[in-house]
Write a structure and sequence with these properties.
Chain lengths: ~160, ~450
């Protein structure tokens, strides 16, 4: 099922085979961008090729939630999330947003909010009580964006080379 | 504009000698009668306690009972001094002192040079907040980008006195004034013209903001940097969002002027009416064949110092009809010294809390109008020169009235009233200096020069 937001003409739906080419471009940009924050986020040399493989996998993947934001024929943003479980916690079932990217030209128009809201609806359907989101430390733009959507800090992950 | 002209070794040597002889350029002088020691019972203790008590209960009285109303700080961290670069705070001092001299001579404004070691933007802004009670305004100077944008924006929102970054707003205001008259000469309307911003540093980013405030169609603007045309689909656009959010914003808002992504620089000139270049010293930075791609009656502002991006004669041969530079030895000098003394005169006289973009636009419009009224506009006269000193009270009056209109002034005024006040204040300064010079109190220089 897809949802068209009339005033913006932006359609949020699950990614399909026809989206692969455009989706792989967005995945490529997402990983290039994250590398700006910390060398440990550096992407592989053949990122384009592997982003394409990933896009192919994602549209087939039944486990993950893969959403695209579409305007006309153009895929302008995407979101990847999956459900995580821990039966020792009251809120044991949560949806984790792992990747989210919106094309520069369509930013500041609420596309990310549409994607996240749709992910929240899917989380409810799957019995999750929390939506969480991950992004590189130091990404202030993401911090501000999610804070504006009502998210708060929840988990900190540290890193060290081995 | 850097105030530097292309100097000769000899000129630099002379300047050093004179700086040493006079031991700097400014001093603090009393402006009240001191006839005998008893006068200090008024100016200092015990008398002074009463103004202090009154100000303590109403801090805004500091604008009435002290010299705060006419005193500003000229603040720099020395990270981008003239064309010299990161020379450090001490080396920035003579420049700030020179600025203070211009403030006093042209605008009747008492300016105090403050150079400091706060290197990061947050600390810089904190310093401004800490010293705010001493001053009626802040003029930021010679700060590297993109830090300078952040500092200006933050300080403007946090301080209750005007904060102005001359390298951004002063130059942008002078550019806008020049452009208004250049377009009169070629018979085009500002809202219709296609504009190339060549370089996206301090002054062009500020000029872009003024265009936006004027409601210009941003898709008729193309910004070019060393990275090529700023475009939403350019390579590394996401990186730009982090390294230079202001250029990033221009890329998104202009949509690259409707050009395809990764267009070569010369494409930016196709069908353009105006190019505003504030980039790196030329010649040869802007090629004549690029100017030839522009529309008929092109307007070219090549503002880099000491050498413009393209020589005016080259630009004209390539089809430009009006050419402006940052230099005083060519026609149409775009000089921010026409702007900052008057803007501060106006805002100080109404005790303004800020300088809005629309106030800067009002200054530009008045500056343009003045040039037109005094001798008309032409291909070689789009702006007045610094010698036409009546321009300063005029621009001050326009800014003051706009501040009142916008509700950012602590006291009200009319155009006529401010014109008289500014004329008197600025005129008095000239009298004082002439008196000190004529009496030999300002000593004759050991070596004289032909100014």
């Amino acid at each position: 099922m897809s949802c068209l937001y009339a005033e913006t003409g932006i359609n949020i739906r699950r990614a399909i085979k026809e989206d692969v080419k455009q989706l792989s471009e967005l995945i490529y940009r997402f990983y290039s961008f994250n590398a700006e924050f910390d060398p440990s986020w550096a992407a592989v040399n053949n990122l384009r090729e592997l982003a394409n493989d990933r896009a192919n996998k994602l549209v087939e993947d039944q486990e993950s939630l893969v959403l695209v934001a579409v305007q006309g024929l153009e895929v302008i943003g995407y979101l990847v999330a999956y459900v995580e479980e821990n039966d020792l916690l009251i809120n044991g079932r949560q949806l984790v947003i792992k990747e989210l990217y919106v094309k520069p030209e369509q930013r500041r128009q609420g596309v990310a909010t549409l994607l996240v809201n749709r992910a929240r609806d899917e989380a409810r359907k799957q019995g999750a009580s929390l939506v969480t989101v991950e992004f590189p430390a130091g990404n202030k733009i993401a911090e501000d964006l999610y804070a504006k959507m009502g998210f708060r800090p929840y988990l900190v992950r540290y890193v060290k080379e081995v | 504009m850097a105030e530097e002209e292309e100097g000769t070794e000899e000129w630099y040597k002379l300047s050093t000698e004179l700086h040493r002889f006079y031991g700097g350029k400014i001093e603090v002088l009393p402006k009240v009668p001191v006839r005998r020691l008893k006068d200090f019972a008024i100016w200092y203790t015990p008398g002074v306690a009463q103004p202090s008590r009154l100000i303590s209960s109403d801090p805004d009285l500091s604008f009435e009972l002290t010299s705060r109303w006419n005193t500003i700080a000229v603040v720099s961290d020395g990270t981008r001094v003239l064309g010299l670069g990161k020379v450090g705070p001490e080396a920035a001092y003579p420049v700030m002192e020179g600025k203070a001299l211009l403030f006093k001579y042209l605008g009747g404004v008492d300016a105090v040079p403050i150079v400091h070691r706060a290197r990061d933007a947050a600390k810089f802004v904190e310093l401004l907040q800490l010293i705010e009670p001493s001053f009626g305004g802040i003029n930021l100077e010679d700060i590297e980008k993109p830090k300078c944008f952040t500092i200006l924006d933050e300080a403007r929102s946090k301080l209750q006195i005007p904060v102005w970054h001359d390298d951004q707003q002063g130059t942008a205001t002078a550019v806008l004034a020049g452009l208004i008259n250049a377009l009169k000469v070629v018979g085009k309307k500002l809202q219709d013209v296609r504009i190339v911003l060549f370089g996206a540093g301090a002054s062009n980013v500020a000029f872009y903001r003024l265009l936006k405030a004027l409601g210009h169609n941003m898709h008729n603007v193309v910004a070019v940097t060393t990275k090529g045309v700023l475009h939403p689909e350019m390579k590394d656009i996401d990186k730009l969002m982090l390294t230079d959010p202001y250029q990033y914003q221009i890329a998104i808002e202009t949509g690259g002027g409707g050009l395809p992504p990764n267009s070569p620089i010369e494409k930016a000139f196709d069908g353009a009416d105006v190019v505003i270049a504030a980039s790196v010293p030329g010649p040869g930075v802007i090629r004549p064949e690029w100017v030839s791609r522009m529309n008929r009656d092109a307007v070219v502002f090549a503002l880099a110092n000491p050498v413009p991006e393209i020589w005016p004669s080259e630009a004209r041969r390539a089809g430009a009809r009006v050419v402006a530079t940052g230099r005083s030895d060519f026609p149409n000098q775009v000089n921010n010294s026409l702007v900052f003394p008057a803007v501060f005169r106006g805002v100080l006289d109404v005790r303004a809390r800020t300088i809005t973009d629309t106030m800067a636009i009002a200054a530009a419009v008045e500056l343009a109008k003045f040039a037109e009224e005094r001798g008309g506009v032409g291909e070689e006269r789009i702006l007045p020169t610094m010698e036409e000193w009546e321009v300063y009270p005029r621009v001050a009056a326009a800014v003051a009235v706009k501040a009142v209109e916008e509700g950012v002034a602590r006291r009200t005024t009319t155009y006529r009233e401010e014109l008289e006040r500014a004329t008197e204040i600025i005129g008095t300064v000239r009298q004082k200096i002439q008196l000190l010079w004529g009496n030999g109190i300002i000593p004759k220089p050991p070596v004289d020069y032909q100014g």
